[in-house]
Amino acid sequence: MSPAGIPAERQLARLAWPQVEQAARQPGSTVVWPWGAVEQHGPHLPLGTDALFADRVLDAVLAALPETAPIWRLPLQAMGFSPEHQGFAGTLTLPADLLIQLVGEVGVQLTQMGFRRLVLLNGHGGQIALLQTAARALRSRAPALGVLPCFLWSGPEGVAELIPPPERDRGLHAGLAETSLMLHLAPEQVGPDRPRDGLGAEPPPGWDLEGAVPSAWLTADLSGSGVIGDAGGATAELGDALFQRLVEGWTRRLASLLVSDWPPVPVHWPPGGLKPGDAGYSHPISS
Predict the structure, then answer these.
(1) CA distance 229 to 204
(2) Which whole-number Å values give the CA distances from 62 to 12, 50, 69, 131, 253, in the listed order?
(3) Which pLDDT does position 278 carry in this prediction?
(4) For 84-120, what is each residue's pLDDT tens digit?
(5) In CATH, what number is assigned to the domain containing residue 160?
(6) Could you say which of 63, 144, 189, 210 is the most buried, measured as most Cβ atoms within 10 Å of its Cβ?
(7) Closest by alpha carbon to 150, among 60, 61, 33, 41?
(8) Is the dihedral of CA 228, 234, 240, 245 positive or negative?
(9) pTM of structure
(10) How many CB atoms lie under 10 A from the CB of residue 20?
């Protein structure tokens, strides 16, 4: 078992190549790649907050799925795309084109092995659109590979209802939800401050910070502390409730994916109808 309590056999990096070859050939073989970021989270949370959340939720989900489920995880991609947080010490961000290329290269190699699906489980809101773009670019290179770019906080039912308004809509970063979840998962990494910041700046009428009519905001536009929200009421109990709903929601979704036939096999698959895993297959598009 791993330190997180999931079998070593679930971790692709801990398998020998014949085990990987066998795994990839299983019907519905699925790889999950957790994504985080190295970026400021106010004066009270660590730089790796998003990465820790994606990693811990994924391990709990994998532990909850049947042992025979054809699903494996990649090591955490801890550094991502965080230009909005530059200017606060510790933030490290990679170029967008580099991350798109990274997803493409890893995904093409997985499909050449015969894996059927790649799930990008992303814990950082600032790279949602980027990973959606990367997923679509990968899908064009590897049409037989299902690519699902997911945001950790979107999808599982009942998560938003645990956060009261206005924090539900305005707590964009290091506020009530994130502070509470960290108090549950790693309380030793939470500082004593409970900041309230970043709530005064308003976009022009008819525009949103995030939502239907978003603005490409920078954290420094809104906050001096790096916090956008109110962490004052954060508790480990709320964090526990959030964690349970995140795990339950993603367990249901991955279980549903694993028994599905998604994606459909493309009608026109180059070259000569060969698919990943077929003898003689090689990808038609070079890197």
Answers:
(1) 19
(2) 13, 18, 9, 22, 12
(3) 53
(4) 999 999 999 999 999 999 999 999 999 999 999 999 9
(5) 3.40.50.10310
(6) 144
(7) 33
(8) negative
(9) 0.90
(10) 18
